[in-house]
Input
Amino acid sequence: MYFVIVTAIFAITSMSLNLEAGVTGLPNFGKVAFLALGGFMAGTVAVTLGMLVTGKSGPPYLAQTTSAVQQLAKVDPVFDVSVFILGMLLSIVIGGLAGMLASYPAIRLREDYLGITLLAIGEVIRAIQNNVPAIAGGPFGLPYVPGPLDWMRGTYGTTAYYLAFMSLAILLASLCFIYFNRLLNSPYGRVLRSIRDNEVVAESLGKDINKTKIHVMVVGSAVAAMAGAFSVYFVQSVYNDSYRPAITFVIYLIVLLGGAGNFKGTIVGAVIYEIIDVGTNFISPAISSYHYIPANIIPHAKYLVIGILILLIVIYRPEGLLPEERIKTVGWDVLDKRSHS
Amino acid sequence: MPKSVPKPTRMDLVTPLILSIALGNLLAVMAAGVSLTYAVMGFSNFAHGELVTIGAYASYLFYYLLRQPFYVTIVPAFIIGALTALVLHLIMFKPLTKRRASLITLLVGSIGVSFAYKYALYILTDLQGVWTFVPGGRIGVPASGGPQPVTIGNLFGVPISDFFIYSLVAAVGMAAFLSYYLYFTSSGRFSRALAENPELAEAVGIPTEKIRLISWVLIGGFAAIGGALLGPSNIFGGLSPETGFTVLFYVFAASILGGRIDFYSTFVSAYIVGFASTYGIQLASAYLGIPSSMQPVVPFAIMVATLLLRPEGISGISSLSWRRRASSKVS
Amino acid sequence: MTSEVILEAVNLRKNFGGLAAVDGVDLTLRAGAITGIIGPNGSGKTTLLNLLAGLIKPDTGRVYLQGQDITELSAHERYRMGLARSFQQASLFKMSVLDNLLVADRASTGESILAPFRNWGRQEKEAALRCLALAEQVDLQSKLKSPSQELSGGQLKLLETARAMEKGSKVILLDEPVAGILPDLAHRILDTFRKSVKEQKLASAIVEHRLEILLKYCDNVCAMDRGKIIAQGSPEEIRQNKLVVESYLGA
Output
């Protein structure tokens, strides 16, 4: 069940990248920064509210401050759920705002420079947070964040907790998938792909490129922030180091592996990645029992595999596992009824 | 409100300056490779950092095995860097450019390569704990694992190591070599033509593939020299597989600030980035209250500012460049 | 009887790094008339089209569409107002032929990030029927479902021209619409085009090299050289104009 939840989180994030990069052609190398913003916001909201309600003050990254919040979360479903909803909403808002800012370079820069710029901006954001303890605990992070279903643990047991969380994750991921897929198979999907294929021609055919890019970045970033918030409520902690730039490229791998421009493919890609992830964790104890091989090798091997996969995909199968499909709108059916030959 | 700053002693002024120059030297050597990649291949190579790392490790390895002084170990380092770059090109970039892959595809591909190299190196250094063939500790190589810098003199009361001189010689030497290469050798001139207009260069019969191969040798070799200097200089704190990625953004910042294709601007930009990253951040923390732990942000800030405010960077300050600017007369 | 002026350009100038690509050009396109634009390579024909279409902004000069000043408007706004431009190089998107036509449809309501929440089905069906009609005009209706990558060079050019004739186009600018096309097909395309222009009273300009095409299909011709219009008149007049002949021979 942990597997499903993490896969769902990766899937949602990757779908947002797929919309930006796979369909519209905006390479968002700073994707992890939006996850981070969502995560920071969610953690800050939850812990701050918790502290307000319990009347505690003091640095949120210290256990003594948050233990009272923890107690509250264990018993009060209203607190848990409202903090969750508020946190998610605010993350979406901040993600959208950040996306709007990020669309400024997206309009002006060529694709490779856009990628580098977004990566750089992401790193700046992360560095700022790392130095300002007021934001989600700064370099110390937030070791405890109340989650939406904490109240379930005591009364209903851990299995029920995970089942409920999993259902929530699946619900979120499905909603995102339905939205993105419907968006792709609509006149708007045509517009996005035309921008990706040839911006100048798209503009000369009446498409407002700048406005479209802004919209795409806002939605993509808001969704990523939501995923970041959700994952914080799941792991119930926030740490700056979770948002290293390498994560963006794991997301990129998922998009490429599954098939850029195909949202079903993205889900497949997320599942495959999580299998690799969990799989390497499984064999880790088996391997490190051999004295010849140090334990550190497993996470490194995982990233090595990721790098090699990216290479192989880019060289041998750039379209990914599930290639892009044609845009399915009702227009096609009209032809079937009226075609002559 | 600026905090009151104690009157700086001579040493306070000079040490960061020396450091800036040292960093600038290193960045100059490495940024030239990035700009050359961009000129001849047309894309930004994220794997350049790994070429640097490989050069550094190669130099350390040969020092460990042969106990030769630095200026000898630099030769095998150069060779290994050049070979690595060639292999990279042949298995990855050449087939992709042949297929007319988009810039982003090349970029993402180079990121995949950098991941693969980096983590392969991590695994290698992980294993060395048992099978000792790469010098240094489990995670990385402390500066003491390789050639050691030796203080050879004093400048305004600050000790200067021989590596400082080496890096200075390398930077200046590289600049001189590249100037000569680009303007007085046929392959250099062909490279410039290739940078200007790849299709036209092919059409007039320039052996573009050969030029690219030669360029990759230079790119890999210079990166390796930069790496070999990097470790002992201890500017980035010892050496580890992560070093390449850390350095990459400083190098990109220098290349972007230099306008990518203007060789001399890139050279100057390397020193600007070096200065900003060392002296600049100290001044900022003293006078603007910006914590010095924000230092890693400097190259990113430079990149973003350049791309958004003045995309061509500081290029155009001299008339010598890889490419003539569009407005000047066609040569 | 002179017909309505649809597109008018006054004193257009555009410099590129010291070089005057378009140097003080006046142009008038009337309803139901096809104007040919000829000139040697580098005379500024494509730049002129780009200026008219709004892909670049002039340094000086104004452009008017049916009396309205559109100089400050961007290319996509001009398209919505009825100005269509085709490109010299094949510029179709990697989608089906039908999608390529649909994307140029001006009436779509589904082109918004909120599309999944809107009801654009009916518009889409009507647009599909219009595109079917367009495809029938150039005899490509059997290819509507094929991906555009499968089409031959000639078919792509046909499609390009058909796309410019979508509902709502009032001024059509074609950049070498039959370059590299066999004469038979070229004449078919241009016959269809000319018929539509006359029937729907569209204004049009065609950039073209070949004199014989201009003679057959254009009502009047402008000859350009080095950014300026050196001669204007009926095709026959232009053919005999000394300046024009020189600029072609000298090029």
